[in-house]
Amino acid sequence: MKVTVGKVLCYIIDRGRVLVFLHRDHPEAGLQVPAGTIRRGEEPQDAALREATEETGLDGLVVVRFLGRVAYDISPIRDEIQDRHVFQLATTGPAPEEWTHHELHDGTRPPTFFCFFWLPLGHPDLATLVVGQGALLDQVVATEPPATPRC
């Protein structure tokens, strides 16, 4: 019997680009965006910020808006239905163009290393996001930083 698990999916947007990653040691896992499990008693918005920060190592992320919920059956990977809460996030400071970061998994297993980079919204590779992660990407609003006054 399939279990339903609360998840968050994070589209981190910066200057019309979305943050994606590959597993350093398992590139066959495919192109992904930050995502993870909602802890018991945790609000989905808080889980999105926690997971995005843990996976990327970026400080100062903010939720721009909630994009919706999507149920996704991930079998045969696992016998579960993911109840995904999808959020658009933004950076509040400069972010590298590319970097590697590791997730510690609360110390329960060895760290997982991720290689992060940005793709422009609409880039054809975004159609290859794994296990339905691109389902609500078309709802992202590309926000630009405010213009610097000239006087």
Question: What is shown here, in short?
Answer:
The protein is mostly beta strands and 151 residues long.
Low-confidence stretches: none
Average pLDDT over all residues: 92
Radius of gyration: 15 Å
Number of strands: 7
**Main sheet overview:** 7 strands, mixed
Tally of DSSP helical segments: 1
Account of the 3D structure:
Helices cover 9% and strands 40% of the residues. With 151 residues, it is mainly beta. The chain has one domain: Nucleoside Triphosphate Pyrophosphohydrolase. Strands 1, 2, 3, 4, 5, 6 and 7 form a seven-stranded mixed β-sheet that branches. A hairpin with a 2-residue loop joins strand 1 and strand 2. The longest helix is centred in the first third of the chain and has 13 residues. The protein is globular. The model has no long low-confidence stretch (mean pLDDT 92).
